[in-house]
User: What shape does this take?
Amino acid sequence: MSSHQNATTYMPWKKQLLPNPHPPTPLNSPMPTLLSNAICLRLYDWSETSQIVVLLTELHGKISAVAKGAKRQTPSTLAKFSGGVELLTAGQAVLILKPNTELAQLIEWDLTNAHWSLRRSLTAYHAGMYAADIVHHLVHDHDPHPQTYHALHNFLANLTPDTDPYPALLRFQWQTISDLGYQPILDHDAQTGKSIDTSSPTLAFSPTEGGVVADNGVGPRWRVRTQTIQTLQAVARNQDDPNSDPDSILRANKLLAAYLRAILDKQLSSMLFLLDP
Assistant: This one.
C-alpha cells in the first residue's frame, strides 16, 4: 500500500472514515488530491473571505494552502470547513496540490480536535504555540515526518489547564529533535568521545559539538547541572527519572530550547515562554 493510500485510511482518532467525496488521485497526476490528518501551525488572512493555512500533515509533511471562502458563514462553506480552521486545531484535510505554485488548495476541513483546553490556560497555550513554532521552522515543505506529527498531536491532545505541561513538553522536544536528526549526544563526551564524569555536580553542553562536553571552559559551551543531563538521559530512554524534580525538568526544557535556538541560528518569539519567563 502506498503512503498516499495510508493517508486516506489511517485515522487514529476516527472510529470509521466516511466515504470521501473527493477520492485521492495519484501523486504524479497533474493536480493530485490528498486526504490526510493535519494540525494547523499557521493561519493568515488572505482576503476578506479566504485564509492561508500552514498544515503539518501526517504523511506528507508541511503544506501551505489557500482556504478559499473559509471565512464565509454560508451553509455550503460551513459544510466544507466543519468547525473552522484555527491555530493548533487538528482535523482531516482535503488538499489539491497545484503544479507551478507553492500553495495548495484546502477544499475541505473536518475538525477533529479543537484543543479547547489551550484556550483556558495561558501556560498551556504558550506551550502549544512554542511546539507548533519549532515544528514550523524545523520541518521542510512536503518532507514527511510522521513521528514528529504524532509527537505534536499527542502533546497538544494531552495539554490540560490543570496539568503541569513541562514533563510532556520535554518529551515532545526530545522526540521532535531526535526525529529530525538533531539528537544531542548524552552518553559520552561529544568532543573527545570519552566517558563523562557524572560524579561532578556540573557538566557542559556544546551546541556546536551537539552534546555533552567537559566543563573546562574551552570553546562555546554552556555549564549545566549533571542532574539536568540525567533528566534528559531518562527521557532518551523513554523512562521517568525518579530523581527529576520540577526544576530539573524545567532546566532540561530550557536547555533543549537553547539548543534549538542555536540550530535555527535565531530566537523565535515563542521561545521567550521558556528562556525568559
The two ends are 47 Å apart (CA to CA). Residues 30 and 119 are 40 Å apart (CA to CA).
